[in-house]
Amino acid sequence: MAEENRSLAAEFILEGFSDHPKMKAALFVVFLLIYVITLLGNVGIIVLIQADPRLHTSMYFFLSSLSVVDICFSSVVAPRTLMNFLSEKRTISFTGCTGQTFFYIVFVTTECFLLAVMAYDRYVAICNPLLYSTIMTRRQCVQFVVGSYLGGILNAIIQMAFIVRLPFCGSNIINHFFCDVPPLLALSCASTYMNEMILFSLAGIIELTTVTTILVSYIFISCAILRIRSAAVVIPMLNPLIYSLRNQEVKGALSRVVERITVRV
């Protein structure tokens, strides 16, 4: 019980990048600019899509959802990192660290699923344009987004359920600038074999599923585009054969022209 209490009450120290004052100041400016640009860019996309009714389509709905995830993902990591650049004490509580790790997993996983959904959306739009409005209804789009979030939350719950049970009775220095699963596992004074198996299994399943969906979707899209280009070149070439030489009147006219040329020769 004492060991469990010590692990729950522990504070961690985020090692960060550098302790040099000038380097910390420069990194603070760089991270702040990146964070502000990320926020402004994604907020701008959301506002633009909401303001223009012509952009109220499934593609832009997914794009605005992705922008929301990017804002949340950046806000999980950036504020704490910026505070650490300005503070000499770079500590974070056990609860704060596990909370940051939880939401980091949620939004990273959600973004992976959303990117796969967006690839599928483009596949349907290009390869099945006549069925696009039937397949990608507003309700279906909402279900895809909600499913992406649920997948991220489920992954985070499973990961954190095993992490919070680990004892942290050794070093409390996290070799990273924010809390993540691998740095936390490295600090545990108990076996992390099960955690590592779960981490790699879930990450492998998610990456395999999303990357395969993206690759297959864009392979079909590329094939569809190549077929369109080939048709644009080949069909005009075959039109005289299809629509003229199979016509009896055209055949008769062609034979008369050939006879005239033969007589003259």
Automatic annotation (TrEMBL):
Membrane topology annotation: Multi-pass membrane protein
Gene Ontology molecular-function annotations: G protein-coupled receptor activity; olfactory receptor activity
Matches recorded under SUPFAM superfamilies: Family A G protein-coupled receptor-like (SSF81321)
Domain (G-protein coupled receptors family 1 profile): residue spans on this chain: 41-265
Compartmental location: Cell membrane
Key word Protein transport present: no
InterPro entries cross-referenced by the UniProt entry: GPCR_Rhodpsn, GPCR_Rhodpsn_7TM, Olfact_rcpt
Superkingdom field: Eukaryota
Transmembrane segments: 25-48, 60-82, 102-120, 141-164, 197-221
One Pfam family of this chain: 7tm_4
Keyword tags: Cell membrane, G-protein coupled receptor, Glycoprotein, Membrane, Olfaction, Receptor, Sensory transduction, Transducer, Transmembrane, Transmembrane helix
Sequence similarity: Belongs to the G-protein coupled receptor 1 family.
Role according to the record: Odorant receptor.
Protein name per its UniProtKB record: Olfactory receptor
Protein source organism: Phasianus colchicus (Common pheasant)
